[in-house]
């Protein structure tokens, strides 16, 4: 199957290659019941050595700069409580941590979660964190530009491989909240 975006040799429906996904991502694909069929979640194999965005788009297609999204894990603190959340924005933007995220989480302070926390709590590899399969009790903040993009490339939970799916599917993920101004 040909990928709808990028220059990839092959695209496979994620339900047909669950063994290539980390456990929480595979479980999320298996359990998916959204309006977008899980068969439209496509897995593409990528070289983990060229995962950096600039090198990645040079190799797999410059249009991916406009059609890729990054998922970062943040930690919001208020009093003694810490709330972990996922934030999904287009790759050409950055997350408004001190504005939109802080307000949405009702936190006094928000920072990017430590790598050990992000990977340990998500069950995913650093550099491959994806919103698909994040813990169900985490808020998932999604920029509207992601939802409005026809096809979006995101991590697969590992540094090797990516997922491509319709942007509208991200608004239907567990805990998803579309937040205006999340990506700046």
Automatic annotation (TrEMBL):
Listed GO MF terms: aminoacyl-tRNA deacylase activity; aminoacyl-tRNA ligase activity
Record-annotated YbaK/aminoacyl-tRNA synthetase-associated domain positions: 48-169
Keyword Transferase among UniProt keywords: no
Signal sequence extent: none
Record Pfam families: tRNA_edit (PF04073)
Entry keyword set: Aminoacyl-tRNA synthetase, Ligase
Aminoacyl-tRNA synthetase recorded as keyword: yes
Protein name per UniProt: YbaK/prolyl-tRNA synthetase associated region
UniProt organism field: Streptomyces pristinaespiralis (strain ATCC 25486 / DSM 40338 / CBS 914.69 / JCM 4507 / KCC S-0507 / NBRC 13074 / NRRL 2958 / 5647)
């Amino acid at each position: 199957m040909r990928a709808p975006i990028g220059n990839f040799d092959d695209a496979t429906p994620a339900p047909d290659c669950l063994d290539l996904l980390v456990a929480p991502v595979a479980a999320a694909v298996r359990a998916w019941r959204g309006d977008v069929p899980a068969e439209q979640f496509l897995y593409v194999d990528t070289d983990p050595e060229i995962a950096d965005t600039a090198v990645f788009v040079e190799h797999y297609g410059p249009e991916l700069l406009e059609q890729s999204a990054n998922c970062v894990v943040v930690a919001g603190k208020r009093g003694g409580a810490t709330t972990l959340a996922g934030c999904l924005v287009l790759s050409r933007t950055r997350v408004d941590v001190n504005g939109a995220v802080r307000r949405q989480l009702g936190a006094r302070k928000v920072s990017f979660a430590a790598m050990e926390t992000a990977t340990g709590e998500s069950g995913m590899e650093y550099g491959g964190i994806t919103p698909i399969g994040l813990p169900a009790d985490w808020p998932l903040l999604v920029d509207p530009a992601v939802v409005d993009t026809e096809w979006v490339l995101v991590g697969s939970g590992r540094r090797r491989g990516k997922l491509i799916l319709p942007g509208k599917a991200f608004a239907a993920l567990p805990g998803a909240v579309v937040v205006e101004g999340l990506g700046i």
